[in-house]
Design goal:
It is a single chain. The chain has about 300 residues and is α/β, with parallel strands linked by helices. The chain has helices at about 20-25, 90-105, 125-145, 160-170, 185-195, 205-210, 210-215, 230-240, 250-265, 270-280, 290-300; strands at about 35, 60-65, 70-75, 110-115, 150-155, 170-175, 225. A hairpin with a 2-residue loop joins strand 2 and strand 3. The chain is globular and about 55 Å long.
Length: about 300
Amino acid sequence: MNAPVETPAPAMSWSEVCARRRLAALVDDGSFVEFIGPEARETSPHLDIFDLPKQFDDGMVVGRARLSGEDVFVAAQEGRFMGGAFGEVHGAKLVGLLRAARASKGKIRAVLILFDTGGVRLQEANAGELAVAEIMRAILDFRAAGGAVVGLIGGRAGCYGGGGLIAGCCGALAISEEGRLSVSGPEVIETNKGVEEFDSKDRALVWRTMGGKHRLLIGAAQAFCDDAPESFRAAALELLRAPPPFDLATMEKEQARLERRLARFGAMREARDVWAALGAPDPAAVPELATQDFAALAGKIAEDAHDAR
């Protein structure tokens, strides 16, 4: 009788698993300790008005962990709950985490944010907008105090709206093929400008315009990852080794670079035109490139980020 053949477990997909599984796979084994966990039942005070279901953690998981032996603070959005949208409690948990990191006086030197969000909850309106503003201020305060903030983008919801603004405040970003980064999402652009301007159902167009490859090539992200926790972990460790400075000189360089980007690419209507201008020998082939081949191309033509977004 033949022995049963063991089938290897499938590799974990970063984009497909929940926030807690992403965190557990990202940090050192067994090191994650959640703050304000499920037992606290901190839920949104606004959703009952709209007869909408609440979630025990309001779609935001925060806590302490170790990354390669170093204590870090981590936060992960749950894109399966209301598209990971920012609300009052959702945002307050991240604000509190960042303020606690700053108050640690150097004991916590880094915060990792795992983005998976469509933006602000329309149901929470001003409360959600205020949460985004408070998070941005808390990130900048922590960075000004010498801390590092790295954003990881690879969830199914992408990183849109207020999430895109918050990502722009991080010191560095790692993004995957599945990740998308923009302030205005595809549906928002189509609603306001029409399908002729941007067809939100054209998935190839969405990924060319907002996807990880394009964001890396134009310098909006600093690392490109496979859809796997080990790839995001390696990227996070690399980005934390040399966090960018946060000072006036860096901001002035960023502003100058954004002005050059607008002058160079502002009239172009297609990402493939941008890739051609950057020097890609076959722009149409870029979306299909495997990670290793894309990394080789990006090493030759991608813009130097200068901490720009």
